[in-house]
Amino acid sequence: MNASVSRVPCTVVTGFLGAGKTTLIRNLLENAKGKRLAIIVNEFGDVGIDGEILKGCGIDTCPEENIVELANGCICCTVADDFIPALDQILSLNPKVDHILIETSGLALPKPLVQAFQWPSVKSRVTVDGVVAVVDGLALADGRVASDMDALQAQRAADDSLDHDDPVKEVFEDQIACADLIILSK
Length: 186
What we know:
The protein has helices at 3-6, 21-30, 49-55, 79-91, 110-116, 120-123, 137-141, 149-158, 168-178; strands at residues 8-14, 37-42, 67-70, 99-103, 126-136, 181-185. The chain is α/β, with parallel strands linked by helices and 186 residues long. It is globular, with a radius of gyration of 16 Å.
């Protein structure tokens, strides 16, 4: 079998805190049309709210064991340490998954994650089928990238692993520039 045919497609969902990434992913789970999905959720803090929401959804095509939470900080800064083991865990599932969704943290730069798909240990097994940026349309109309800028700054301050010091505006521009599809929410 051709390696490109056997690779599992993966969709990266990015966007700032409160933009609607988890809502979008839950909708995808509810409308999977029989495809077995797995999710990597990049969380912050001791309690993974988004991961718990997705784990508790009770959707047969994405059982709880198909959801992996990465809580060690921004996925773009911990891609080698966290992403590869999470990917290995998902790819070892039986039955095999048909598609992987990655929900990045709101502060993630998509480029380092997308570049990781070119690493030899990843390239032969998984392919990026697209990057989706979810944007809070109401906040953007008001000239902001998120409705709660204080929560966004608190998220940034709480992440000890964050090793990029890009201003929020540049992170937003990077998320938009990397996107194959932009969804305006709210």
